[in-house]
Automatic annotation (TrEMBL):
Residues 298-371 form the Glycoside hydrolase family 38 central domain. Belongs to the glycosyl hydrolase 38 family. This is Alpha-mannosidase. The keyword Hydrolase applies. It holds the Pfam family Glyco_hydro_38C. Keywords: Glycosidase, Hydrolase, Metal-binding. It comes from Paenibacillus profundus.
Length: 905
């Protein structure tokens, strides 16, 4: 009989913050690392330690113990401490595609500071589901194995594996395949990542321990190599492990006990893997379970955190990085150091217990500050970058008297039109000219000559303007002290038209110019209408939307639903036997609040009453640690007001209706959703996920027991019958459900209130009730065909990205008044990123094929490149790609391929 090998890997799963505030965990980390270094120094039998796959633990330790860096470097170089490949252990579904890439890039970057030693294992020990494109991402980073704890086999309370359910894989080892066909070895922690913790030294205890643990490991192992994880959440170092291993060797001579590491374990495992391993495809979201412990409702816990994160990610990857890359081409140094800081600060909010909103309140208060810090740095990068670009734009076409030019930047990655706003200074007087009060008084007397906006060809555009009065401002010169001033200003709003992807357009306010105003978009008492859409607001505030291109009408859109929630921050649970309340039939106030030639808005106000909370039973069940699926609590009979203000906005030429919602929440233990009945007959739907548009079943698997089937999304979810489709795009609203009835209604969660953390004990979280004012933004997009065929992703992605509009002086420059730095086209292809690679210094652009068939990507540069090459997600230099003129390149993309283009200039 072949001898079995017990691979014991020492580790700790380090939740940076969770059931205690960050600094509590931080203090314990310092103690753990001190103990680890001491153990490595004094016990040569303690071979190695896996530092949880995240390099941030090194940063956090050295922040307090900088004098220990030399020891860390020594043991990392010796292969006794294994680090990387990530910066943090993220929630994959609540962080953007590019954030997942930056996490891997910065993890590798940090490892390079320690001599390039890196644990090349795709480590996902506690992710709340795993992204379907992970194998492709890992393979591009030259990682061919993934280790994960969730998503495949059924798990229950405290992550116990059920032996009775049907497995997707009979073994803990399997092949995991991405939609593009990329394959890695997948290793499931079938007995969790603590199945080798606290190994006994006393012989009698050791016999019982190993008899049980070896049997449990053998149940799922496909080879004679058994994996035992010696550690758990914040588990201290087992300092007597080498002694415990010697005891085990003595007691079980037929088993080879090894203090191992992932590199050695995987190398030996590969030699024995059977050929009949099961291949699992795409996303691992615990689809084949009872549905009660998927942790999916962390997507709606503390929605405000998700919204702040989405805004920050968008500013970094869709505004700051593209602008800085183009400014670099125009001669400005690319601020890699500032971007690394901004991304690291943001990613400190990305661990699965942080961004998921499933920690104690103190944790999430600190997250708000981190979001603001990252955002402020990003805004500073944007401002400095735009200033450098404006200096190079030739605006002499607007050299006429009193013309005030301004530039509109589009960094969304797609050609687009939309409403922009800008504050324009008509005059400025610095404090050196007089006391600011006197300056302000004098400037208020300056008359404003009415005017209009014109483009570089002299065309007059529809616009609105208003007097913005006299306001304070200041310059921060690079070579002198700050320069305060007072400015006489106007606010201008207009529709920017056909701004190219990665381009800009320069316009100007011209006093005295005039244009006969076109008609507004309000065509009935409460009807908005443009050439593409007709949107009628009913008495109950719901929307009837007609797609003029297909002739199809959708009725009853955007009814609000309120349901009780007796679950926790991890999982939603509606009280048994209760039914949700809705605004269907509830009369609302309706008012037209804006009606211009380019945009019109109807505001709807609901004065609603909903239960104040759950009843008193819930509190006792929480104290008694009653598992949430077995709770009996109901909703209170006491009611409180719930005021919802909705703004429906339609722009001229728009393909969508934008919706902005403001909620005054004074209720606890509930969930609010917006409902969009499609009326289509469909078995599946589409939702954007990480580097893919995932197709998911409307009806869950047979094993599913949870009445709810909530799912993760990124920028949109869509239902189609193949001929027609209805898509809802969103900003930071990551949870949705498609109903399991014949209406195939899309339900998007806007707010969820819960009063406890959940999981392994009772941790009250009163701030997770989200009392107060909350907002939500989303858009309704009807179309022909399904979302992929209709190219709806471009509309959904552009919806996220703010316009950047800045006033500019009249001057000569090397850049024209209107310009595109880069152009691309590709049916079924989505843009992801444009930036400068830190290692090579080259520009890199990333796209992904959302279709499950080959597509063509064409990229064009306005200036010649010296070389185009195929890169990867780590942005390494790869094989050259032919270009006839060093300006145009054509790439054939494979099905669902993530493609990174390197551009040498």
């Amino acid at each position: 009989m072949t001898k079995k090998t017990a691979h014991i890997i020492s580790h700790t799963h380090w939740d940076r913050e969770w059931y205690m505030p960050y600094e509590y965990h931080h203090a314990l980390l310092i103690e753990l690392m001190d103990t680890l270094l001491d153990t490595l120094e004094h016990d040569p039998g303690f071979k190695s330690f896996h530092l949880d796959g995240q390099t941030i633990m090194l940063e956090d330790y050295l922040q307090v113990r900088p004098e220990m860096k030399g020891k860390l470097e020594k043991y990392i170089h010796e292969g006794r401490i294994h680090i990387g490949p990530w910066y943090i252990l993220q929630d994959e579904f609540l962080t953007s595609s590019e954030a997942n890439v930056r996490n891997l890039q910065i993890g590798h970057r940090d490892c390079a500071h320690y001599g390039g030693h890196i644990s090349k294992v795709g480590y996902f020990p506690d992710s709340f589901g795993n992204m379907g494109q992970a194998p492709q991402m890992l393979k591009q980073a030259k990682i061919d194995v993934a280790v994960f704890g969730r998503g495949v086999k059924p798990t229950g309370f405290n992550n116990q594996v059920s032996e009775d359910a049907a497995y997707e894989s009979p073994f803990s080892e399997m092949i995991w395949q991405s939609p593009d066909g990329s394959r890695v070895i997948g290793i499931l922690f079938a007995n969790w990542y603590c199945n080798g913790m606290e190994v006994p030294v006393e012989e009698k205890q050791a016999v019982a321990y190993w008899e049980k643990h070896i049997e449990n490991a053998e149940k799922f192992a496909s080879t004679n190599h058994l994996l035992f994880m010696n550690g758990c959440d914040h588990q201290p170092i087992q300092t007597d492990l080498s002694q415990a291993i010697e005891v085990a060797k003595k007691l079980f001579p037929d088993v080879d006990f090894v203090h191992s590491n992932f590199n050695d374990y995987v190398d030996e495992l590969k030699q024995e893997l059977p050929e009949n391993l099961q291949t699992i495809q795409g996303e691992l979201r615990s689809q084949r379970t009872d549905g009660w412990y998927t942790l999916v409702n962390t997507a709606s816990s503390r929605v405000y955190l998700k919204q702040m994160n989405a805004e920050n990610q968008t500013l970094l990857e869709k505004v700051a990085e593209p602008l800085a890359a183009f400014a670099h081409q125009a001669g400005k140094p690319y601020p890699h150091h500032l971007f690394v800081y901004a991304w690291k600060t943001l990613m400190q909010n990305h661990p699965h217990d942080s961004i998921c909103g499933c920690s104690v309140d103190e944790v999430h208060r600190e997250m708000v500050t981190r979001f603001e810090k990252s955002k402020h740095m990003t805004e500073m990068i944007i401002n400095e970058t735009v200033d450098s670009l404006l200096k190079q734009i030739d605006t002499t076409v607007y050299s006429g008297k009193d013309m005030v030019p301004f530039t509109v930047f589009n960094t969304a990655g797609y050609d687009r039109s939309g409403i922009v706003e800008v504050k324009l200074e008509l005059s400025r007087r610095y404090f050196r000219e007089g006391h600011p009060t006197k300056l302000a008084a004098e400037m208020k007397q300056e008359p404003i000559v009415p005017g209009a906006v014109v483009d570089a060809d002299g065309n007059v555009l529809d616009c609105q303007w208003e007097d913005a009065g006299v306001t304070f401002g200041y310059d921060l010169p690079k070579d002198k002290f700050r320069q305060p001033y007072m400015a006489r200003s106007i606010n201008v709003r207009l529709q920017a038209k056909d701004i190219p992807a990665f381009g800009y357009q320069t316009l100007a306010w011209v006093p005295g110019a005039a244009k006969e105003q076109s008609a507004g978009l309000v065509t009935g008492e409460f009807t908005l209408e443009n050439d593409r859409l007709k949107a009628e607001v009913a008495e109950d505030g719901s929307l009837t939307l007609t797609d003029k291109e297909t002739g199809h009408m959708y009725a009853g859109l955007n009814v609000y639903e309120d349901a009780g929630d007796i679950g926790n921050e991890y999982m939603f649970r509606m009280p048994e036997g209760s039914k949700p309340l809705t605004t269907a039939g509830l009369k609302a106030e309706r008012n037209v609040v804006e009606n211009t030639p380019f945009r019109s808005v109807i505001e709807v106000t609901h004065h609603w009453s909903i239960p104040v909370s759950a009843d008193e039973t819930l509190k006792q069940e929480q104290l008694d640690i009653v598992d949430f699926p077995r709770r009996k609590a109901q909703r209170s009979t006491d009611m409180v007001p719930f005021r919802i203000v909705t703004r429906y906005t339609l722009d001229r030429g728009a393909k969508r209706v934008d919706v902005h919602v403001t909620m005054d929440n004074q209720s606890k233990d509930h969930r609010v959703r917006a409902l969009f009945p499609s009326g289509f007959t469909a078995e599946t739907h589409l939702a954007e996920s990480i580097f893919e548009v995932a197709r998911r079943n409307n009806v869950p698997a047979q094993e599913w027991e949870n009445p709810s089937n909530d799912q993760h999304q990124h920028t949109f979810v869509s239902v189609s019958d193949g001929k027609l489709g209805l898509t809802v795009a969103n900003k930071g609203l990551f949870e949705y459900e498609v109903s399991q009835d014949n209406k195939n209604t899309i339900g998007v969660t806007l707010l969820r209130s819960s009063g406890e953390l959940g999981d392994w004990g009772y941790f009250p979280t009163p701030e997770a009730q989200c009392i107060g004012t909350h907002t939500a933004e989303y858009a309704i997009i009807p179309h022909a065909g399904d979302a992929v065929a209709a190219g709806v992703h471009a509309e959904a992605h552009s919806f996220q990205v703010p316009w950047i509009v800045r006033q500019v002086d009249v001057h000569e420059g090397r850049l024209p008044a209107n310009h595109a730095f880069l152009a691309w086209e590709g049916e079924g292809v989505a843009f992801s990123s444009i930036k400068m690679a830190e290692e090579s210094g080259d520009m890199v652009g990333r796209w992904f094929n959302i279709a499950h068939e080959g597509k063509t990507l064409n990229v064009r540069l306005p200036e010649a490149a010296t070389d185009f090459y195929r890169s990867n997600i780590l942005e390494h230099t790869g094989d050259s790609i032919a270009s006839a003129n060093n300006q145009d390149v054509t790439i054939q993309l494979g099905s669902a391929e993530i493609f990174t283009l390197g551009i040498k200039k």
